[in-house]
Design goal:
Histidine-containing Protein, Chain: A, 3 helices, 25% strand, four-stranded antiparallel sheet
Length: 84
């Protein structure tokens, strides 16, 4: 299992369109991927779950990945969430 803290640099935060892209990125991988905030843990492949988090730009989240392709999954999710 890999755990990484990532700051959201997407200007609009994780609203509808960025969440849809994040779910697409996460869904490319077989491993289990979760996004954690202080009070929630959500499957990154669940569009409804991710929408419910309401994460703003500048917030930090913890992303965990567990499975055969976890390293590649974390790298690409970090690349997406850190982009401006």
């Amino acid at each position: 299992m890999i755990t990484k803290e990532i700051e959201i640099n997407i200007p609009s935060g994780l609203d509808a369109r960025p969440v849809a892209v994040l779910v697409q990125v996460a869904s490319q991988y077989e491993c289990n991927i979760n996004v954690l905030t202080v009070d929630k843990r959500v499957n990154a492949k669940s569009i409804m779950g991710m929408m419910s988090m309401g994460i703003a730009a500048g917030e930090k989240v913890t992303v965990t990945a567990d499975g055969s392709d976890e390293k590649e999954a974390i790298e690409n999710i970090e690349k997406y969430l850190s982009s401006k």
